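Archive entry. Fields below.
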Amino acid sequence: MARITMREAISQALWEEMERDPNVFIMGQEVGVWGGTYAVTKGFYDHFGEKRVRDTPISEAAIIGSTIGAAINGLRPVAELMTINFAFSAMEHIVNEAAKLHYMFGGQMELPLVIRTPGGGGRQLGATHSQTPDVIFAHFPGLIVISPGDPYDAKGLLKSAIRSNDPVLFIENATLYQVRGEVPAGEYTVPIGKSSVKRTGKDLTLITYSKMLGTSLKAAEELSRDGIEVEIVDLRTLRPIDMEPVINSFMKTNRAVIVEEGWKSFGIGAEVAAQIYEKAFDYVDAPILRVAQKEVPLPYNQYLEQLALPQVEDVIRAVKETING
Amino acid sequence: MEKNESLDLYYQMVIIRRLEEKAAELYQQGKIGGFLHLYIGQEAVSTGLLSVRQPEDRVITAYRDHGVAVNMGISPDEIMAELLGKASGCSSGKGGSMHLADVEKNFFGGHAIVGAHLPLAAGLALADQYKQNKSITICLFGDGSTNIGYFHEALNLSKVWNLPVLWVCENNKYGMGTSVERSSAVSEIQIKASGYNMKSDQVDGMNIIKVRHTASRMLAEIRDGGGPQLLEVETYRYVGHSMGDPERYRTQAEVIKWREDDPIGIYRNHLINEKTATGMELDEIDRNAEQVINKAVLFAESSPEPAPEDLFAHIYNEKEGEVI
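PREDICTED_STRUCTURE:
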């Protein structure tokens, strides 16, 4: 298997699906002539042409609103928002239209729409361009929210998302674009709505997703040297969330730590912990802890920014605290 | 126009009027819940406009959508059932008054957030342009929505990409209770098209003949590849914004003055003056419409409520609770 970057994996998924189905097209800011601000769609404009790789005005509501319209009228659009922070300018169309049309009209409208967008902090972009607001979107029934942690899942999940007839918000952590992982050469997909066990262990269950998968895997290696073996469950899809592998793992380890990049309050960790308490309370041996971003708007200064973001050491500390009490 | 076509337009307008009057009654009896926005006074707008469309054209509108639903061929039975929230309603009782639709008839719905459906309309048109269909998207909205960003983003995109859209502003003079003069920098809405280098026109929306004439000319130009256009239709709603509107923002005298221009009355006189129909023939249509609406109420009231398991149906397109 080839080791390719997350950028290449996502790019391959888009390319293959566009070759496979002429109704798939891309639109967003700088996706065409520029080649994508993160170079994900580099070369697409020359190969597929301006009809299928559409540069738009800086007009997020129009981008999302019109791709919804195109989706209910028979196309399979892949909209790109330059960053998830700009999704707030299209909030109405994501949560009030995309998430609701199918239900609100009694199942008449199909929305085969994918919204791709990079998110996450750690690049000194300041408070407005560094957020991880994934949980806000995961709150809405009717929307599918996916955020992969490695190139294999990114490619397979994006292909499933493009083939799905439901609206999908596909969140890519921008610091992962350079990260490499093994991706097979042939055709494959990864199912939406399925969590995945990324490491087995008996002592504690780490539940995470996206960039924090890598952080958690690093923490797991160091913990292993101290004789602590953690099991890692990657959620991959935030809505609909698949808790079964989490509960199965927890019933074995009886301890859990949830690691996410976004703010702790009202976060993914809060949801996962609550579901563990609801479904497996008799198996709880220690309080479930959460590792997450400090409750501040992310500062520009690199030291302060890293201080606010969850680090490998934070994960190690939380795991040891949970195990040692 | 053939006689039967002329009379059908009259029938559609009367059906809308009777349906709306009956809906108001049922609302006061507590049988219709939520919000209810009536189309009384504006019947000539959608009836005239949609009578000159082609079957392949796409139609989308705002929440004052009962008239458009009638003109798009949704039966009064299904509309009334939807207003009563019944499973037999056109949106299975999930949408209510503001969310009538029938995608198979190319009606992509009433939409309840002011202006938010305009970008959707651009997308409907984009899909047809992409597939090289001859369809035009006809998008109706109120004067109030021309002050929100979605209007401007959608008009701009439609012009940049030369999308086949007829933007139709139903200027009924008030966004809820705030007059156009108090809320818009220009009270002649069609001027806003010039900011997007877009052709526009204005028409008297109380006269169905004039609406048809102007709309069919604009649709022909758009179908020839001329790009999007904006049509401002001057109209007036005789009743409040929604049920329970105290109407402190306008005088009775103003309402009475506009009622003299009743779109159904104007068209009725036209048909009689042109000797297309006699008063007796039109009275017969009135009685027929009344019966159709009474039957629709019976149908809606006797239809079952949605089943409890319908609560979880249609959240996702894939089978309930399951995705790929």
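CURATOR_NOTE: The mean pLDDT of chain B is 95.
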